[in-house]
Design goal:
alpha+beta; about 160 residues; Nucleotidyltransferase, domain 5
């Protein structure tokens, strides 16, 4: 019997004062996707939140609405219906000796490592049954060529 995982991934390449290169992802089993989606959409609708929830958009009038939706989200995580992962770099660690290729592709090289390792995909299928993986990336902030190369590499190697 095959299993299917869905990963929703997003990132921020903004250089912060102490931390940078934030990558985040949510993994949902396909068997739970409708339940999770409906619960979150219902909570957002009940709170009159119809756009993407972003912490930068919170005002004092919306704080309790955001908290309500986020409490539901963390309940879904607690019930093991959603797995959430975040990776970032600490600015005090400076890379040295990188080749030009690594410097030009640092964003995608880090993103690849995040997708490959954050959810333990290589250990998630001990039975050896067919494993399907759908990954939804937010808009990738680079050239189409680099994005296509990244997606191609993900497709061919992420679960090996």
């Amino acid at each position: 019997m095959s299993r299917e995982y869905i990963i929703y991934a997003d990132e921020s390449v903004i250089k912060g004062k102490y931390y940078s290169n934030f990558y985040g992802g949510l993994l949902v089993w396909s068997t739970h996707l409708n339940e999770v989606t409906k619960a979150l959409e219902k909570a957002k609708e009940e709170q009159n939140l119809f756009k993407e929830i972003k912490w930068q958009k919170i005002s004092s009038g919306y704080l309790d609405k955001y908290k309500t939706v986020m409490n539901l989200f963390f309940n879904l995580v607690e019930k093991d219906l959603v797995k959430a992962r975040i990776m970032f770099t600490q600015n005090r660690y400076v890379t040295i000796g990188l080749e030009e290729y690594h410097q030009k592709h640092d964003y995608f090289l880090l993103y690849y490592q995040f997708i490959k390792h954050a959810f333990g995909l290589r250990y998630s299928n001990p039975s050896g049954n067919e494993l399907k993986l759908r990954i939804y990336f937010d808009r990738l902030p680079d050239t189409r060529e680099k994005a296509a190369l990244f997606k191609s590499h993900i497709t061919s190697t992420v679960t090996t």
